[in-house]
Amino acid sequence: MKQLHDLMMAYPLTLTHFFERSRRLFAKKTLATRVPGAALFRYTYADFAERTRRLAGALGALGLARGDRVATFGWNSHRHLELYWAVPLSGCVLHTLNIRLAAKDLTYIVNHAEDSVIFADASLWPQLAAILDTLPTVRQVVLMRDTPDARVPAGLPDYEALLAGATPVGSWPELAETDAAGMCYTSGTTGNPKGVVYTHRAMFLHCLAQTMADQFGLSECDTVLHIVPMFHANSWCVPFTSVMVGANQIFAGPNPQPRDICEIVQNEKVTFTGAVPTVWIAVKELCENEGWDISSLRTIVIGGSAAPRTLQQAYETQFGVLMSHAWGMTEMTPLGTVCRLKSYMQEWPEDRRYDVRARVGYASVGVDVRIVDDAGAELPWDGTSMGELQVRGPWVTAGYYDNPESPQRFTPDGWFRTGDVATIDAEGYVQITDRTKDLIKSGGEWISSVDVENLIMAHPKVLEAAVIAVPHPRWVERPLACVVPKPGATLDAAEIIDFLRPKLAKWALPDDVAVIEAVPKTSVGKFDKKVLRERFKDRAARGA
Ligand code: AMP
Asked: Which of 393, 420, 435 is the last residue before a domain boundary?
């Protein structure tokens, strides 16, 4: 029998290929990080490649072996980028920790992932120091001086010293494309955070897709500003794609503020960036009031939560900047859909064009989407039928890391249940109409209403509590706690908030408390938050 099938090389789709190609082709290109109170730190791709190989040498010297989890706890920076590459290329697994999590979640996540080493920004050290005793698998913390005045406590290795003393690796280990490259935990509606593990293959294909003209269209000509935190779905994977194409890159550094973003975009002539709507609402205000020039941007990707249509219109008409709406999830590496108008839609009247642009776009190549009803039957793409959005594809998770709840998120025929509710129109454009109903998305981060409720219900005077999202002009959504006092008890808002303050991350603390007579219930006795949301839909959100 003559061989006909499988006559192409079994070349593994790993990040190693991107790195080595980029090192050879783009040595002169620039990487930079914002340093508060100082000029941008800048170096070249050649420096980056050399330091990444040194870092890999250091990882070996620290005794890290294939499959070991190496965590990061940091802001966006060139050092974080070095870790993005040195860790997976060494065969270890990059675990990006969310610096905004409350101590209990952080502890859970590090212990669940069994992280061996944490690379942390020095400015964040106090947060980590407070829980280090509860992290038995962590045998080393390495600190990175992210601010000019940052100090490294005695006894802890400093990243730069570690690199200076390391021998650069000469070659990379041979990896399989199914090897784990990174992991990222996401908060769900119930239970503990869940770990998504990215394979090299998933990231390789996802990066390629992000360069497509009808998607992000990332190319060597771009200057990319990374605002989306590198601990949130790998900054939407854009730092990986940017290295792949050899774009100039700027990292927003510690605690970036909207004015920092304006300044970098204007001074560095940034062409591409992305962030949650909250950021763009603030940047718009500054551009209007202070006259920043952001016209170098060819596009801004907006996603993570719904983007107001008026915002998209304002960016295009006032600043000449195209805003592309996108939808994705940590479980999807994260890209699912991007909103680009089809050629014939360009001729449509403005109003109709913005109707389309307010949707999250059509499925990326590589991603299959469908909507299904409660019984699991597929719904038509008619723009009105509404059902759960389900996806599948080579960069969609096949199961959470070591999590018994995993199977519940998949259909019998192997699709991932996103928990989002959507319509799809005849052109294939997806509209997210609702989402896992109980989660609150504040400034791009999830707040689990269940977590907050459980804490409130521990108050001795509280009978029941339900936490819902109310719209907020800056943070998009903020939590409102609806609280029922025990019979005979009286309660005020301050009492509840003071009670929660030591137990919750600052941004997860409700701004407002409504004392109510009873929490409405569904037929099966669950809290009916839909009714509460309707009742409080006009309640003005408090808080800055
Ligand atoms: P995360 O995994 O934290 O990035 O959150 C993913 C979730 O954010 C999705 O399941 C959606 O509910 C929501 N989301 C992401 N992008 C959008 C968008 N463009 N519009 C509305 N919701 C979005």
From this structure: 435
Q: Are residue 105 and residue 207 in the same domain, yes or no? A: yes
Q: Quote the ligand 1 centre to 328 CA distance (angstroms).
A: 6
Buried b (16+ CB within 10 A) or exposed e, 3-29: eeeeeeeeebbbbbbbbeebbeebeeb
- CATH number for the domain harbouring residue 479: 3.30.300.30
Tell me the catalytic residues: 186, 331, 441, 446
Tokens standing for residue 12: 């593994």
Domain count, the chain: 3
**Cα 436 to ligand 1 centroid, rounded to whole Å:** 10
Instruction: List the CATH number of the domain containing 201.
Output: 3.40.50.12780
Picking from 220, 240, 256, the residue at the C-terminal end of a domain is 256
Q: Which of 451, 21, 40 is nearest to 244 (CA)?
A: 21
Pocket lined around ligand 1, Cβ cut-off 6 Å = 186, 233, 303-306, 325-330, 334, 360, 418, 420, 432, 435, 446
* Cα(145)–Cα(112) distance, integer angstroms: 27
Distance (Å) from CA 196 to ligand 1 centroid? 15
C-alpha torsion 229→358→431→512, nearest 10: 60
The DSSP symbol for 504 reads S
Closest CA to 293 of 272, 314, 318, 273: 318
Based on the domain organization, do 383 and 241 belong to the same domain? Answer: no
Q: Which of 98, 324, 327 to mutate to test the pocket of ligand 1 (most atoms within 8 A of CB)?
A: 327
Q: Let me know if residue 334 belongs to a domain.
A: no
Same domain, 101 and 204: yes
Nearest CA to ligand 1 atom 6: 329
pLDDT tens track, the chain, 544 positions: 999 999 999 999 999 999 999 999 999 999 999 999 999 999 999 999 999 999 999 999 999 999 999 999 999 999 999 999 999 999 999 999 999 888 998 999 999 999 999 999 999 999 999 999 999 999 999 999 999 888 878 889 999 999 999 999 999 999 999 999 999 998 754 568 899 999 999 999 999 999 999 999 999 999 999 999 999 999 999 999 999 999 999 999 999 999 999 999 999 999 999 998 878 888 998 999 999 999 999 999 998 876 777 889 999 999 999 999 999 999 999 999 999 999 999 999 999 999 999 899 999 999 999 999 878 999 999 998 888 999 999 999 999 999 998 999 999 999 999 988 889 999 999 988 755 566 787 887 767 776 788 789 789 898 888 899 988 888 888 999 999 998 889 999 999 999 999 988 888 899 899 999 988 875 334 567 878 888 998 886 665 5
427 domain residue, yes or no: yes
pTM for this structure?
0.85
What is the best residue among 335, 432, 477 to mutate for testing ligand 1's pocket, by most ligand atoms within 8 Å of CB?
432
Range of the domain at 83: 27-256
- Of 195, 232, 187, which Cα lies nearest the Cα of 76? 232
Q: Are residues 476 and 496 in the same domain?
A: yes
Cβ atoms of 425 and 385 within 8 Å: the answer is no
